[in-house]
Amino acid sequence: MDSTLGLEIIEVVERAAIASAKWMGKGEKNTADHVAVEAMRERMNQIHMRGKIVIGEGERDEAPMLYIGEEVGICTQPDAKAVCNPDELVEIDIAVDPCEGTNLVAYGQPGSMAVLAISEKGGLFAAPDFYMKKLAAPPAAKNHVDINKSATENLKIISECLDRSIEELVVIVMDRSRHKELIQEIRNAGARVRLITDGDVSAAISCAFSGTNIHALMGIGAAPEGVISAAAMRCLGGHFQGQLIYDPEVVKTGLIGESKEGNVQRLKDMGIEDPDRAYNAEELANGETVLFAACGITPGTLMNGVRFFHGGARTQSLVISSQSKTARFVDTVHMFEQPKYIQLH
Question: Which of 86, 99, 232, 340 has a 20 to 30 A CA-CA distance from 279?
Answer without folding.
Answer: 99
